[in-house]
Amino acid sequence: MLHRKLKSEELNRISTEQFKEAEKSNLIIMLDNVRSVHNIGAVFRTADAYRAKAIYLCGICATPPNAEIHKTALGAELSVDFKYFKSSIDAVNDLKENGYKVIAIEQTENSVSLEKFDIKKDEKYAVILGHEVKGVQQEVVDAADFTIELPQFGTKHSLNVSVTAGIVIWEFAKRMII
Question: Burial level of 56, CB count in 10 A (0-12/13-18/19+)?
Fold first, then answer.
């Protein structure tokens, strides 16, 4: 059996304009002081792939337009809506005021493993991913409604923020829109 790779024009991709008009999931991704523009760009690309509603960029996060974000986002920074907040707490308050359940992706005393978290199709969720070394700020964890962690079985107990985002966004997408 042959497995010929598909050409770009065979993938039926929608345009940026069509993406802007398309129905999105009720998922917002919030980045709390993520320092790497490559991680930010990768999150934009994943958010585009799974039609997340928006990305909230907080604190030291770079924002589009940015050539380095574009390098990994490959244009997804043009399709996915974003907002910048100087303060992550202000972003959390905005999310809560707009009816979002706010979830910090962090290892805490009472965190729930991702596969056990009850994701409801009709709910509005915001997931917070933190700084590459320090994680989600404690005050932001304290302000969240829930904490979710990813199960890990090796010697390391952390993943790159863009890898974590990919896993989390996919899990929410398959339970909310697929």
Answer: buried
4-5-6 Cα angle (round to 5): 115
3-class DSSP assignment, residue 151: coil
Residue 119 contacts residue 25 (beta carbons within 8 Å): no
Amino acid symbol at 90: D
Closest by Cα among 27, 20, 4 to 174? 27
Q: What secondary structure, in 3-state letters, does 72-122 show?
A: HHCCHHHHCEEEEECCHHHHHHHHHHCCCEEEEECCCCCCEEHHHCCCCCC
Q: Does domain 23-176 have CATH number 1.10.3210.10?
A: no
Q: Please say whether the beta carbons of 32 and 59 come within 8 A.
A: yes
Query: Going residue by residue through the chain (178 aa), what tens digit of pLDDT does each one get?
Result: 889 999 988 998 999 999 999 999 999 999 999 999 999 999 999 999 999 999 999 999 999 999 999 999 999 999 999 999 999 999 999 999 999 999 999 999 999 999 999 999 999 999 999 999 999 999 999 999 999 999 999 999 899 999 999 999 999 999 998 6
